[in-house]
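To the team - pyridoxal-5'-phosphate complex, inputs and output below.
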Amino acid sequence: VATKLDAKPAGATLPSGQAVMDAYERYVIRTYGRIPLVFERGEGAYLWDSAGKRYLDFVSGGRAGTGLGHCHPAVVAALKEQLERVMFISNDFYHPWGAELGRLLSERSGGRKAFFCNSGAEASETAIKLARKWGHQNRGPNSHTIVTCERGFHGRTMGALSATAQTKFHQGFEPILSGFRYVPFNDIEALRAAVDDTVCAFFLEPVQGESGIYPADPTYLRQAADLCRERNILLMVDEVQTGFGRTGKYWAFEHYGVEPDVITTAKALAGGLPIGACLATPAAAVLQPGDHGCTFGGNPFSCAGAIAALKVLDDNGYVANAARVGERLLAGLRRHQKESRTVADVRGLGLMIGVELGVPEAKAVFDRCVEGGLVVNAVGDNILRLLPPVILTEAQADQALAIFIQALA
Ligand SMILES: *Cc1c(COP(=O)(O)O)cnc(C)c1O
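Output:
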């Protein structure tokens, strides 16, 4: 059956917002509770919808996917060049862009080695397989339990889902994989009690993102890292959301002075392209030829984007910018919290901020933000999550803060 979308001749203007939403309803499995906003263009910290209205993008394309804002010119230029050179070469061969991205990530992660994939979930899967093999090799045949934290999030594939200690995501998909043990976050005694001889790794987000921005307590992560060393188990940090400057440091774990064995990354790595990477110290990088693979993992196109994005991040001081502008946003929100009767908590690190309301009105606040030209993310009934790109200026932060505070009123 022909639709307006089918009928659209090449080069014509885009279909109406309503036609786009209708087509999704009809042709796309409804796995997401989508917000009725149709975006057509992005530039820097701004998005434009199908009616031409401009928004400050405080979700980085949604879920922190574009750390550098939309269409960073240096990333776009690198991608255009790469598209005309070569897009895909499989991991049966070598190519210069995988070599260069491996080198850049190694330099920026204290000499860790990379496995390239396409997403955060795949980075989690890689970490899980690596931890199990490392456990079997280094601790014994029964050492394959991975401890993860309640309220954490590691992705939607079966392994990553099993690592995600939130029953609401498991429901309907049981049985989840065995070999995972869940502990409350920020509770060192619970972790201590959970680590026995079957455990090979502890896997956590330094700042829990999807569940509403909960940073690890400084002492907790340090004590957890010490415990991992004492008990000879791997410390694995999920930096899929927190990496590449989001928290005001290159990696969130740097706030805590710990040295993880494994780092999973994705989201902002290539400035808005699908890519992921699992980074492991040479001692933890036990995967051998035939152990793991990913057809599009580390393809020349995504690598070229990531190489450009990592250079942009370094050359422009954007990590320091995220710290400075994030501090300004947090300070503004905390000032407002003192006067407000609706804000129960303001928490975060850098440009990863959660605002918890004392009332279940997150959706209403979200709607008013959108009206005012600001896109934020509502988590559950009472948390708003702010994840603006690291290129955000102080003026844009102030403007967003004004809209947000107005929306809270
Ligand atoms: C988003 C996210 C993932 C999953 O990444 P996908 O690319 O959606 O598979 C994993 N871990 C964390 C911490 C995330 O925020």
